[in-house]
Amino acid sequence: MSTHTLSRHHHRWGTARVGVVGLAVMASMGLAMPSAGAAPAVALPLEPGEVLLSAFPVENAGAMDAMGEPTGAGPTEVAVQYGDTLTVQLPSYLDTTDVVVMLGRDDDGNGSDETTYSSEPGAPTPLGVTGEGTSSIAITLPNNAPVDGALGTLTLEGLTTTTALGPEYTSDGVVEYLLELNTEALADETLEPEVLALSSEPCDLTSATPCPVTATAGTVVTLDLTAGSALRDLGLTDLTGVEVALQALDATGNPVGAPVALTVQVTGSTATFEIPAGTAAGSYGLLIGQPTPTGVSLVLADLVVAAPAAAPVAAPPATAAPSTQAVAGNVGLRSNTGVTAPATGSSTGTVAAGAGLLLLAGAGGLAVARTRRRPAVETGTDEV
């Protein structure tokens, strides 16, 4: 049995996203440069108003880690036998009532399917499918004019969410697998995709208005999986296993270098981490990943790291007055250094300000995420 690379296929799941999730690219939705400011502590509730579900073919690429990145050594096809039954086992919260299953068969490996089978009524080359409306979709693989080693693309479309999930949830509707069709005897296969649940804070995924969190280097950020969070519908009861990464962005919102994994302290439904000391002022993305019983939850947050507040400048020392004139120190007057000393009783400080860009890993908004295509981007995460 041969192993084929996937480079000729335009797969929904690509290779990996911004070094932290295998399904994503970062897209900016507005950008402004930060100004000097201070944010001694930041609270970030994890209670998204929109969650996008996307099924991930782990049998092709390996299971997702806590940040949604595939763990396999490299994408390969699933070997199946002509005429056998192939079962796709889906989470119970995905509704398969209106699912349509298609199988494209590429006999010569040139990237073009010679035959396309479909479960849609009236299809010229029908595909036998049972289990619609349940979590187990059984597909009888065709056995007409078999070509050993032909490549197959199995697609399930029309997946929606059930009432087991709240109104915050939407499915991108599709799961796609690569197969290698063989004439040799092979055991029946059961495929069980994992599900990436993508959301953002504090703005929703589809928000066109940036709403960054502002902090300074050294700021402690507290995450809170609130009691009413929609993420609890995925089976999350606390923040056990949560991971956080910091991704630097350039002035146009594109990632710069690899994301940096941050140290996280978890206490039940809350977790804290610190923006590393020495982090330069600018725009960043926070990526907050956590395993769920059926896959991974990935929350994105727009972050602006502001320059630290300038230390107050001390008034210049008092200058001795001529013996004929008694004068006070240089209070409230401009010294020859060009610095104005604060008047008695005044205080100095700066106001935290700034805006940034909303990071959308894998989606760029729900409309983009539903297109079934995801570009490949850089991989890798550095630890601090």
Automatic annotation (TrEMBL):
Q: Where is this region: Disordered?
A: 105-126
The organism's superkingdom is given as: Bacteria
NCBIfam families the record matches: LPXTG_anchor
Q: What is this protein called?
A: LPXTG cell wall anchor domain-containing protein
Q: Which organism is it from?
A: Geodermatophilus maliterrae
Taxonomic classification, please?
A: Bacteria, Bacillati, Actinomycetota, Actinomycetes, Geodermatophilales
